[in-house]
Amino acid sequence: MGAGHAHDHGVDPEHAAQAPDFRRRLAIAFALVLGIVIAQGVGAWVTGSLAILVDMVHSLTDSAGLLVALVAATLMVRPPNSKRTWGFRRIEVIAALAQAALLVGVSGYALVEAVHRWENPPQVAAQELLVFGVVGLVLNLAAMLVLSAGRSANFNMRAAFLEVLMDALGTLAVIASAILMMTTGYARADTIAALLIGLLIIPRAALLIRETVAVLMEFTPKGLDLDEVRGHILALDHVKEVHDLHASTVATGLPILSAHVVVESGCFEDGHAPRILDDLQRCVAEHFEVAVHHATFQLEPEHHRDHESGGALHP
C-alpha cells in the first residue's frame, strides 16, 4: 500500500505556476536597444570603428535576445493545462540559453577581428565615434532603468538586464577609446576597446550557460542539499527509510521534489499516515534555504520496495 501527497499550505498550484508579466518592460527595452543598433550601425559606417561595430553586433544580439525574452514572457503567462502542467514556465530557461549561445558567437567574432586590426589599425573618426558612443550609452541607461525592477524575477529577465548592462559597459569602452584617440592619436585604442567588449561578454555567457544547462539537466536546485533533506526526513517519527529522492527546478522560484518514504506498517492502520504527510511537507517547505512548496511523497510500508520495478533509480 502506498500514499501520495502534494500539499501547498494555502498556495493554489495553478496560481503558483503563473509567472509575473514583464512584457511591457521588455517591449520598451527592445525598442530602446533596437534604437542603439541603428545608431551604432550608422556610427560604424561613418567612423570605421571596430569597437562600435562590435558593440553594434553586441547590441544586435541583445535586441534579438530581448525579442526572444519578450516572446518567452508572452508564453510564460499562458496558464497550465492538462497537456502542459507547468504551462510554459521553462521557456525562460531555453530563452536564456539561446541568448548565451549568441553572445559566445559575438565574442568570438570580436576577438578574431581585433587580432586582424591590431596588425593594420585603420583610421577612425574619433569625434563622430564619441557622439555615437554617447547616444548609445544614453539609450542603454534608459533600457536598464526599464528592466531594473524585474531583473531578479527569473532567468529570462536577468539575462535581458545583464545583456543591456554589459552593452552599456561596452559603450563606455567605445567612448573611452574615442577620447583617447582624440587626445593622443593612438589608433589602436579602438582595437583595444573591441577586445575589452569581447572579453566582457564571455564570463556572463559562460555563467548563463552553466545555470540554464543545470536546470535543463534537472540537477538539484542550488542551495538545496539532498543529504540534509534525507536526514531531516529520517529524523521524523515513524519514518524508516527514504529512497527515490529527487529534486529539480522547473523555472526560477519553482523547485520541485519527490521521494518514496518508508514508514512503519502500523501507520496505515491507525490513521497516522496523513499526519506524516503533513510533517514531510512542512519539513521541505520550512527547514531549508530553498523552500519547496511543490513536493510529492509516496508513503510505503516496510518491504514494499521489494515489489518496485527493478529499473527504478534509488539514490
CATH class categorisation of the largest domain: Mainly Alpha
Number of domains: 2
CATH architecture of the largest domain: Up-down Bundle
Q: Please tell me how large the radius of gyration is.
A: 26 Å
What's the helix-strand series?
A: EHHHHHHHHEEHE
How does the major sheet shape up? 4 strands, mixed
Please specify the SSE layout and strand pairing.
Blueprint lengths: L2 E3 L7 H4 L6 H25 L2 H27 L14 H29 L6 H23 L6 H30 L4 H28 L9 H9 L4 E13 L2 E10 L9 H14 L7 E8 L14
Parallel strand pairs: 3-4
Antiparallel strand pairs: 1-4, 2-3
Helix pairs in contact: 2-3, 2-5, 3-4, 3-6, 3-7, 4-6, 4-7, 5-6, 6-7
Notable traits:
315 residues; 60% helix; alpha+beta; Alpha-lytic protease prodomain-like; single chain; 2 domains
Provide an overview of this structure.
This protein is an alpha+beta fold and 315 residues long. The chain has two domains: 13-216, Cation efflux protein transmembrane domain (Alpha-lytic protease prodomain-like); 220-307, Alpha-Beta Plaits (2-Layer Sandwich). It has nine helices and four strands; from the N terminus they run βααααααααββαβ. It has helices spanning 13-16, 23-47, 50-76, 91-119, 126-148, 155-184, 189-216, 226-234, 273-286; strands spanning 3-5, 239-251, 254-263, 294-301.
